[in-house]
Amino acid sequence: MTSSYIGRFAPSPTGALHAGSLVAALASWLDARAHGGAWLVRIEDVDTPRCVPGADRLILQQLAACGLVSDGPVLWQSQRGPAYQQALDTLIARQHAYPCACSRKDIAAAQTNAHKARHGELVYPGTCRPENGGLRGHAARAWRFFIPSAQAPVHWHDRRLGAQQQDVAHDVGDFVLQRADGLWAYQLAVVVDDAAQGVTHVVRGADLADNTPRQMLLQRALGLPTPTYLHTPLVLAADGHKLSKQTGAAALDLSEPLAALNRAAQVLDLPSATGGVAEALATWTTQWASVWALA
């Protein structure tokens, strides 16, 4: 146990919390409490076109109804533009970033067997890399992170999934830091904010595990610490796919908060609790270490 532990829950306000969101929120809160640490909430509203007005406040109300309240001021990514710009400027100065003129159509047209679609994303073929001629007179649309061709696969350890690795150069390519519409990409924003908030442990859904190697490369390039990661089980819809707002997941029914928390606890291999919300959270906190090893 360490009092220097800082965890976080970082929802996107594209709608109300759903059952899968509560699993991630509960897991991150319990891990922080079991470590004797702090738990923070960050509203990841950097993708403003997808955000629903008022969803951020609704999410905070939903969390409070479940007894999950941030131990510090809530941070909104939409207010963090200068910090992201400073990070991009640093990457440019260190030759870790370059401008890109490619549209999605351009990237799709350049796809080969070596640069096929991955998880619905197009692997960037390196068209605008400096050694390939850069912009070649075209206007810059976005900024990308430069991954050296000799970059070794990224190895990391997840507290639940175990040893992980990814060849980011081959499997992802140079990823976007700032989009063509001027908005900041998730990968850059999350790395900058985790460091700014002193986050030591990231507990989030397993669907985000694939992002971890990219974030680790950014952390190294910016000279920032790498947190410890734990990716939790997902709540699946009837069709077997991840429950999400994008697929129409229903908003949490919090008419009985303890019932919602018990359903989330079941996904986390914790037993059902009785009594009130506070009593349930206290019980699960004491059980957490035996189910999810503390590290």
UniProtKB/TrEMBL annotation:
<keyword id="KW-0648">Protein biosynthesis</keyword>
<comment type="similarity">
    <text>Belongs to the class-I aminoacyl-tRNA synthetase family. GluQ subfamily.</text>
</comment>
<keyword id="KW-0436">Ligase</keyword>
<feature type="binding site">
    <location>
        <position position="44"/>
    </location>
    <ligand>
        <name>L-glutamate</name>
    </ligand>
</feature>
<feature type="binding site">
    <location>
        <position position="245"/>
    </location>
    <ligand>
        <name>ATP</name>
    </ligand>
</feature>
<feature type="domain" description="Glutamyl/glutaminyl-tRNA synthetase class Ib catalytic">
    <location>
        <begin position="8"/>
        <end position="250"/>
    </location>
</feature>
<keyword id="KW-0030">Aminoacyl-tRNA synthetase</keyword>
<keyword id="KW-0479">Metal-binding</keyword>
<dbReference type="GO" id="GO:0016874">
    <property type="term" value="F:ligase activity"/>
</dbReference>
<comment type="function">
    <text>Catalyzes the tRNA-independent activation of glutamate in presence of ATP and the subsequent transfer of glutamate onto a tRNA(Asp). Glutamate is transferred on the 2-amino-5-(4,5-dihydroxy-2-cyclopenten-1-yl) moiety of the queuosine in the wobble position of the QUC anticodon.</text>
</comment>
<feature type="binding site">
    <location>
        <position position="100"/>
    </location>
    <ligand>
        <name>Zn(2+)</name>
    </ligand>
</feature>
<keyword id="KW-0862">Zinc</keyword>
<feature type="short sequence motif" description="'HIGH' region">
    <location>
        <begin position="11"/>
        <end position="21"/>
    </location>
</feature>
<feature type="binding site">
    <location>
        <position position="124"/>
    </location>
    <ligand>
        <name>Zn(2+)</name>
    </ligand>
</feature>
<dbReference type="InterPro" id="IPR049940">
    <property type="entry name" value="GluQ/Sye"/>
</dbReference>
<feature type="binding site">
    <location>
        <begin position="8"/>
        <end position="12"/>
    </location>
    <ligand>
        <name>L-glutamate</name>
    </ligand>
</feature>
<feature type="binding site">
    <location>
        <position position="102"/>
    </location>
    <ligand>
        <name>Zn(2+)</name>
    </ligand>
</feature>
<feature type="binding site">
    <location>
        <position position="186"/>
    </location>
    <ligand>
        <name>L-glutamate</name>
    </ligand>
</feature>
<dbReference type="InterPro" id="IPR000924">
    <property type="entry name" value="Glu/Gln-tRNA-synth"/>
</dbReference>
<feature type="short sequence motif" description="'KMSKS' region">
    <location>
        <begin position="242"/>
        <end position="246"/>
    </location>
</feature>
<feature type="binding site">
    <location>
        <position position="204"/>
    </location>
    <ligand>
        <name>L-glutamate</name>
    </ligand>
</feature>
<dbReference type="InterPro" id="IPR022380">
    <property type="entry name" value="Glu-Q_tRNA(Asp)_Synthase"/>
</dbReference>
<keyword id="KW-0067">ATP-binding</keyword>
<dbReference type="Pfam" id="PF00749">
    <property type="entry name" value="tRNA-synt_1c"/>
</dbReference>
<dbReference type="InterPro" id="IPR020058">
    <property type="entry name" value="Glu/Gln-tRNA-synth_Ib_cat-dom"/>
</dbReference>
<protein>
    <recommendedName>
        <fullName>Glutamyl-Q tRNA(Asp) synthetase</fullName>
        <ecNumber>6.1.1.-</ecNumber>
    </recommendedName>
</protein>
<dbReference type="InterPro" id="IPR014729">
    <property type="entry name" value="Rossmann-like_a/b/a_fold"/>
</dbReference>
<feature type="binding site">
    <location>
        <position position="128"/>
    </location>
    <ligand>
        <name>Zn(2+)</name>
    </ligand>
</feature>
<keyword id="KW-0547">Nucleotide-binding</keyword>
